[in-house]
Amino acid sequence: MKLLLIYTGGTIGMVPSDRGWRPQPGYLESRIRSHVRQEDMDVEFDWLEYNPLIDSSHINIAHWNTLAEDIVAHYHDYDGFVVLHGTDTMAYTSSILNFMLRGTRKPVILTGSQIPVWESHTDGLDNVALALQHAQRRDLHEVYLAFNQTLFHGAHVTKIDTDGLKTFAAPHGVHLAATGEKEASQPRCIPASDAAIEVYYCLPGNSLQGLSALLKTQPRALIMSTYGSGNAPDSPELREMLKVAQNQGTLLINRSQCYRANVDMDRYEAAAALRETGLIGSGTMTLEALTAKLRVLLTLFDNDVDIAQQLLLPWTQELPPINAS
Ligand code: ASP
Known about the structure:
Elements: E1 2-9, E2 14-15, E3 22-23, H1 28-38, E4 44-54, H2 61-73, E5 80-84, H3 90-100, E6 101-102, E7 108-111, H4 124-135, E8 143-147, E9 150-153, E10 158-159, E11 168-169, E12 188-189, E13 197-201, H5 209-216, E14 221-226, H6 236-247, E15 251-256, H7 272-277, E16 280-281, H8 287-300, H9 304-311
Parallel strand pairs: 1-4, 1-5, 5-7, 7-8, 13-14, 14-15, 15-16
Antiparallel strand pairs: 2-3, 6-12, 8-9, 10-11
Helix pairs in contact: 2-3, 3-8
This protein binds aspartic acid.
Aspartic acid binds at residues 9-11, 55-57, 86-88, 112, 114.
Protein name: Asparaginase
InterPro entries: Asp/glu_Ase-like_sf, Asparaginase/glutaminase-like, Asparaginase/glutaminase_AS2, Asparaginase_C, L-asparaginase_C, L-asparaginase_I, L-asparaginase_N, L-asparaginase_N_sf
Active site: 87
């Protein structure tokens, strides 16, 4: 069993600077190797450290494409992959890798920490140990996030705490459906699209000016962040605005602001206008999984009908059963 650890940055290897915490190159590997030896862990791994290391709030499409390409390039050399990543956008990265990586059947486990490894009370070493353990499993074939004793499916998870060690949660419960004996085909990666995906957050009391300004930028996709099961205040102006946007080539999607979301535009009259305008409901997907899948679908398809159809067709486990736990 041999693993590849890819270190992208994040708090796990940060040090203080006069402008706040920042990643420190060249140090984390030896700290982790000495921990592995100390704990007598039976694991062999190679280390790939990115340059520059980043705070994960700087993550962009190019980083995701490099990460997915590196995993595919080294696919046959290793039995599993661990990606060390900052927590701020870890759920976006664990989501998108699930869609970008095709034909792979080895575990890819993301982890990081809230407290750097140099601190005596760090959570980083436990998290890395958990990730190393799961990266050696032969029954895991997708992309996961390991944190605070829990293994999440990478497309189920969201960051819920800026400070606490229970940093992530899966809104619909921790639900790791077996992927079965996935057929190994030629591993490849689908690049993520950098098309503009905007989110409009409904807020009681706001006029439609903000939405109007956003739509003038003609984003490729607009996610309406609605209330409850996908409801929004209705008005002829709103309907007209959305129709014009659609005609100009913006894909319109309805995702609830609710933490545990399940968009159902048939439930309330307050969603009827959005349904009639042709918004696509995002079901139980997290915002992270939804935007991740969109970035891959926008690479593959030009046609909105194809994108809408694929969006609600499970590719991985991005549509968890309601309230699974
Ligand atoms: N700002 C840090 C990052 O995402 C937070 C962390 O790693 O916990 O890189």
